Amino acid sequence: MSSRGGVTLVPEGHIHMHLLRRWWSFPADFAWSAAYHRMSPLLSHVHVAVGIWCGFFAALCVAAAHTPAGFDSGTSEKAGYAIAVANTVVGVAWVRGPFPTEKVSRLFVAYIEVAIAAVLFLLADPFVALPGAAALGIIGSYIAVFHSPKLFVAHQTWSVAVTGALLFRAVMEPSADVVLAYAYLILLTLILFSAPILTQSLLLLLRSDAATAFYDPLTGLRNRRGLDAAITQRGNDPDGHGSTAAVLVVDLDGFKLVNDRFGHAHGDVVLRVTAEAIDAAFPPPAITARTGGEEFAILTYVDTDAAIEQVAALQTRLAADPEVGVTVSVGVAHLEATSVARDFREAWSRADVAMYAAKRAGGNSVSFDL
317 exposed, middle or buried (CB, 10 Å; 0-12, 13-18, 19+)? Predict the structure, then answer.
């Protein structure tokens, strides 16, 4: 480092290393990426597209058994047909859904990586096999969208190894066209390495921005958009959360007076402390969100008695914090846990009406819509 005019200058190499370390350690949220795709009318059919791609891969394996440049022995032909059958099974599983877990997705990546390499090395003509390595770019795109930079680097390393071995095999042929082989290598470099690396970096930035768009920057809770996304995701996975759910609307009493008396900076502190108290009183699998200025929404999987206990815990926590200085009015509406995606909006509306009933009763109270 050096200084100029009192300003510390950081060497460009240090900046690049910092960016590289940040990229390498970027967390991969597979569940969020999968849920984001399920929410979009256009992207929700990605699993079908992956299944169709597996079907095309199976068809190529069958076609390779019927050309002189393909499988030239009984053993390689049987292996090719076996891979075709396996690809068909995997493709059908993708099309039928649902979207796989992260562990299953990683197994899928490992299988496809090995299957592509196996088919390429089984081909009789090395000058057909070498450009065929471009197929690895397809699975690279899948990894870039759903998985971490670490898995992406592992894929790129595998691609280098496979491409290098295929190139060596091609140029060692007695009548090899070396110029053509290296022309293929240049093309593969563009397909497998240059474009995917830029694409993966861009997707990481977009993923980060998209994830941020689902959360309220002041409190860290979900915003309305994040709440809708979480409800949609929960609707796609309705099991495992019990049979009963409750929607709560929490509104701070007299918050305008707090802002008028102490200023908006203190009001922000009150909102942050309230959000922390809500998160503590309603732990996962509950979903919490800030839906308006001083209004919060909660989805929790409990019965009436448990909901009363959670609200009491929230009120106790707020009362014990001298920074808050406000009370809350709470409205509660129940619904079936299995119908959350369908009935959440209606239950939220009922809870909102109940919250205003609690305010009319003097505030610092709970009202139930049963």
Answer: middle
Alpha-carbon span 24 to 197, nearest angstrom: 12
Total length of the chain: 370
Which of 129, 63, 61, 64 lies closest to 89 in space, CA to CA? 61
DSSP state of 101: P
Nearest CA-CA partner of 289 in 223, 218, 341: 223
d(CA 171, CA 177): 7
pLDDT in tens, 214-266: 888 888 899 988 888 788 777 655 555 567 889 999 999 888 888 888 888 88
What φ, ψ does residue 215 adopt, rounded to 5°? -125, 145
- For 152-186, give one letter per residue: b (16+ CB within 10 A) or e: bebbbebbeebbebbbebbbeeeeeeeeebeebbe
Query: Please, where are the H alpha helices in 213-366?
Result: 224-236, 255-262, 264-281, 304-319, 340-360
CA angle 101, 103, 106 (to 5 degrees): 110
pTM above 0.90, yes or no: no
∠ at Cα 139 (138, 141), nearest 5°?
65
Cis-peptide, bond into residue 98, ω within 30° of zero: yes
Residue pair 286/342 in contact by the 8 Å Cβ criterion: no
Show the tokens assigned to 86.
Answer: 């396996």
Judge contact between 314 and 281, C-beta under 8 A.
Answer: yes
Tracing tokens 């979009």 back to the chain, one arrives at: 40
More confident residue, 242 or 74: 74
| β-pair type (328-336, 244-252) | antiparallel
Do residues 139 and 116 lie in contact, with contact meaning Cβ atoms separated by under 8 Å? yes
DSSP state of 253: T
